[in-house]
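In this supplementary section we document a worked example of the pipeline. Step one takes a protein sequence of length 170 as its only input; no multiple sequence alignment statistics are reported here. Step two produces a three-dimensional model, which step three serialises into structure tokens for compact storage. The input and output of this example are shown verbatim.
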Amino acid sequence: QRGITLNLDTIQGQSIFRDLATRCDAVIESFQPGYLDAREVGYDSLSRLESSIVVVSITAFGQDGPYSAYVGTDLVINAMGGFLYVTGDPDRPPVRIGFPQSWLIAGAAASAGTALALYHRTSTGEGQHVDVSAQAAVARTLDRSPAFWDVGSQVLTRNGLLGRPGGGPL
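The serialised model returned by step three reads:
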């Protein structure tokens, strides 16, 4: 096992990062938007050194937009992604799942985005900046909600243990 620690606030740390980044398959990062750009080691700077580089950025709300500068906790991301609307008992406020689910969902989205960007690179030689918003990834988990309305005029809501009235196995 090998590992390193870099201080990206130093010229030496930035230089080492650039060297490593341009020799790897993909860079996956989760800094606040603009952090790497301010140190000239973000996608734009790296792609000038290596046009086929793939950089995957995972943040609470994406690289741009009205909430991009906000720090998002798992609870906030799940709430803004709509997940809390369907989580918990119907007669109580929504509840947070006991494990940071939003970051697992964002990780799965980043994994798929990385694979697609690498596949695209094998076909075209072009790199990409993959922008993963944890909030948008959570919202996509609810993409079946409209179908419940279309098929059975049912609005998904909090419905107790395992999503069934009275609980129990599905």
